[in-house]
Amino acid sequence: MKVAIVSINQPSFNASLKLSSFMSDFDVDIYAKEGFSSSEHRVINYQKLDDIMGLAWQKYDAIIAILAIGAVVRKIAPFLKDKSSDPAVLVIDLALSKIVPLLSGHLGGANELANLLASRLNASVFISTATDQTNTLAFDMVAKKRGWRIENIKCLAKISNNLLNKKAVKVATYESIFDSLPKKDNLELIDFDSVDDNSVVISPFGNFENLTLRPKIYIGIGCNQGTTKEEIEEAFAEFIENYKISKDDIALFASFEAKSSELGLLEFVKSLGKEIKFFKKEDINSLEMEFSSSASKKFFGIKGVAEPSAILASHYKELVIKKVALHKKITLAGAI
């Protein structure tokens, strides 16, 4: 994590040096007025705060200001854009005894960083985020901790307010994911056809106007011997277009070990910058569930390729896209 510690005078510069010594596991730059330097810490000098704030906004994951809160608010105001992209901003007092995560508490990581520094400095933290104060489920934090993308984040405030007010919130997702959610007291599992304005969607595919969390999807793939990279690319493009799947949400590909020497398949996966995992016959046949009929049962004595491979590779072990056969050569399936 790249962090900028911003000071403005001798006392705050001294505090910056001390704070930096507690952050040796971070990539830290200290910003100080001209004339201040250190042989032990990386110091970047400036004349006016306005000269550095725009650069810092783009360059760092977090900005820690040892300044007055009002001054910080005024200096960062022109750069505020979106909670999904703004850096974490924290304000710390000169004694390093009080920490305020000012901006991007959840997605930017300001709250987490504040708590970490508080534990190292033996400092107190003032977190203003309501869901944190009331121990209420925060869907943005669920997504962040699990590495999921978020779409339509503008809808988050309404959902969070409903939960804070103890109102029911509908969640359109799969049982395995719903069961894994914390603090489900006011959550109701619904199917995707029942989505309304008071719903959250958790799915790796489909188009929605609601707050949508995109869990990782694991793609099981089978192909005939000698299938080319170009043929797989064409089929895959059709598959993700039909299901509205983003390549960014694909965790990895999976298949049967007999396909591990298929050059077209290997080249295709490599071209996407992804990995593929191959499973043995006994792994596939150990699954106690029914799969779509497959020619692989006749040729290899296994229950299938695309569907069971996707299940085996997946996190929640739930099939969400049954096998799709394309161009009479390629099969694709998806699991979460």
Automatic annotation (TrEMBL):
SUPFAM superfamilies listed in its UniProt record: CbiG N-terminal domain-like, CobE/GbiG C-terminal domain-like
Cited InterPro entries: CbiG_hydrolase, CbiG_mid, CbiG_N, CobE/GbiG_C, CobE/GbiG_C_sf, GbiG_N_sf
Gene3D superfamilies, per the entry: 3.40.50.11220, CobE/GbiG C-terminal domain (3.30.420.180)
Any one GO BP annotation for this protein: cobalamin biosynthetic process
Database matches in Pfam families: CbiG_C, CbiG_mid, CbiG_N
Residue stretches making up the Cobalamin synthesis G N-terminal domain: 53-132
Occurrences of domain CobE/GbiG C-terminal (ranges): 217-333
Keyword vocabulary terms for this entry: Lyase
Lyase recorded as keyword: yes
Domain Cobalamin biosynthesis central region: 138-204
GO MF entries: lyase activity
PANTHER family: COBALT-PRECORRIN-5A HYDROLASE
Name the UniProt record assigns to this protein: Cobalt-precorrin 5A acetaldehyde-lyase
Organism in which the protein naturally occurs: Hydrogenimonas thermophila
